[in-house]
Amino acid sequence: MSNEFNNEPVIERAIPQDAEAVSELLRRTWMATYPNAEAGITEEDIRLRTEGENGERISQNIEDWRKKIETSDGSVAVFVAKKDGRVVGMTAPGIIDGKRRIGAMYVLPENQGDGVGRALMQKALEWHGTEEDIYLLVASYNQKAIKFYKDNGFQQTDRVVEDKGNVYGNTRIPEIEMILKA
Fold first, then answer.
1. What fold, for 10-180?
2. CA 148, CA 129: separation in Å to the nearest integer?
3. CA-atom Rg of the chain in angstroms
4. Which residue has the higher pLDDT, 80 or 49?
């Protein structure tokens, strides 16, 4: 539980009512993280990807997260980090093509560096267990996240991945794979 003195985040399984906060958290963190001049990715590219031309993707993203949160087949879990009752981070570990993956893991920019990511990672790793390798994908230019993952035992593989892109234009975020050996 949260403690007023140490301000530790409360990590809990997301409920459908968290879908809107999760979607907004992702929109905000994507805008703060993914525009990158060297990679040719503009703020507008990310806005289109997270909001759509006229905001039409916002409600779809909320619904997509609500469905993920409600998934009960054991293939994915969505956890949120809350401080003062407000969602400040999230992670969605899952099993993709039979492999254990740290899916989305995001913390609001103003809460990065205060233990939220560490607590979320601990919960995701606990969900996966230690019997099999766990992998993740991270933007190749997101050095802050790469360092965080390395600090949590992940090592970069040789695999370079291009994400599936955007329904608006050809914006693709170059990604690398990292793995935590069992």
1. Aminopeptidase (3.40.630)
2. 20
3. 16
4. 80
